[in-house]
């Protein structure tokens, strides 16, 4: 992971994260990122006994919260030095975000993606004009490939999560959510490398110190839950789950201490619970949230007892899902 | 159709429709119906060469614009006389709307529905506490069944479209759209019995006299297009189309003269065009619109030349779609 740190320091970023970083990110992304709507469903409240608000980052540009961090990072680095190319490795949504941001800011993007990434995400990344380099998710080392591209081409590496500018950008969604619904008891956020939850919790704890922040992971991808239990970062084999955005084997070096400080605990959800919740949301709320994106909501739906009577904010983190995969998921739902 | 007219007159409603009716409907539904969001997609603008705004009535209560008319009708009639029961016949979305409105206003609802109505719509209607009576769409006469229930039980009949209060309620969506985007060149609206387009065009022509209003029908359900060509109402055999909300064999007696006066022409779309557009909207915009609801958008997507360079408002009229049917549709989309 040395590479990240070097780039982070090289780019002038600090290794901690504060509310001020989130505020600065908000200023940077204003008028470029969408201020996404907050959804509420009477039916979901009836199902859960809680009052739940959904921050719809599936409606963010490029279909996920990732746009916020990517824009904040690349824009901030361009304020420090001049470069004409960026490189990112990503399971999908970060790739699309970096590709779109690069197009908007006039730099070239090369994206290192797993060869089994959903076709829609590969196509969308290329559609934004990025070069895509494929690697084997279960064998290859994407960081090594990314680093090599950075060395060979002198490009800026845009890490998917382990970077204060990325985390701060991600946290802006929660800042917007708490502006609209200030009195939340809980904030529930999917966890992959931890960038979204680190930024979200930093914003939430500043704006609403009494809030309880829960992370959510697929039960096969519980590296952060294990890490919190053990008190140090645990690496697991690359997990297999339908939540392709949450398949990271180890929480970030920079995100983990923030999570330790701010996150109460990490709940686990099954693939079936995510599919059930995705189908419910589509049928009842008419909105498409991808499996990774719906993990937080699935935890609330399937662990009602923890949330009954409370006011809960949930981040829908993304909505990029291949229609063919969606059709397969819907075919599995019991009617 | 005698029944409608009798009830309409009995309820004190006039047989014409004016902007004032839409204004009154707005006051009646305020704080009860959702003010639905207006969506815009850079990608759709790139595809079409137009600038297109979507009024998301798929996010309306009970999943379709129908809630507006049903609430306006039942509430207005309750202001005139006391009754404890309502009856409606409907292919689906009107049924759910009447069922939900009845629940909110504390009256009992009996809904006459075709036996091949989508299971999700049957279940949702029953879920709102209504009694459902089934009939054969291709053989039975739903109006006769409805009339009989009205006679036997002294209930209020809530027609799906041919009623000024229903039309006025439907028109409130367009009033909201034009408040947000005042300078539309075109308004594109799906046509079934004509209640939505009659109300929409009445509102649009008042707020923006120079606007051009287009209706859209499935090519197998072109009764209104035929009626406009002939200058009188044409009845066709009950059409077969995936757009189950647009399967009405004849435009309304009251809606037709309004359509003649306000609608430029009716465009036709195929089932494949509606499926293509539905899948596009889900994948790119992360929003579920049902086949009937997406008809207007499909016309803009597949007849780009008519709209290039123009500012277009489209009504997404509903979003109620069974997950299994959606899976089937997505399986048909070419990738």
What does this structure look like?
The structure is a homodimer of 335-residue chains. With 335 residues, chain A is α/β, with parallel strands linked by helices. Helix content of chain A is 46%, strand content 15%. The first copy, chain A, has a 6-stranded mixed beta sheet with strand order 1-2-10-7-8-9, sandwiched between helices. The first copy, chain A, has a 4-stranded parallel beta sheet with strand order 5-4-3-6, with helices on both faces. In chain A, strand 7 (186-190), helix 9 (195-207) and strand 8 form a beta-alpha-beta unit. The longest helix of chain A has 17 residues, at 164-180. The N and C termini of chain A lie far apart (46 Å). Chain A binds chain B through residues 37, 58-59, 63, 119-120, 279, 282-283, 285-289, 319, 321-324, 326-328, 330-331, 333, 335, and chain B through 37, 58-59, 63, 119-120, 279, 282-283, 285-289, 319, 321-324, 326-328, 330-331, 333, 335.
Keywords:
homodimer, about 325 residues, alpha/beta, 4-stranded parallel beta sheet, about 45% helix
> What is the share of helical residues of chain A?
40-55%
Q: What is the general shape of chain A?
A: globular
Q: Give the structural class of chain A.
A: alpha/beta
Low-confidence stretches of chain A: 1-13
Strand content of chain A: 15-25%
Strand segment count of chain A: 10
Average pLDDT of chain A: 91
Q: How far do the termini of chain A sit from each other?
A: 46 Å
Radius of gyration of chain A: 18 Å
The count of helical stretches of chain A stands at 14
Oligomer: homodimer
Q: What strand order characterises the main sheet of chain A?
A: 1-2-10-7-8-9
Order of helices and strands of chain A: HHEHEHEHEHEHEHEHEHHEHHEH
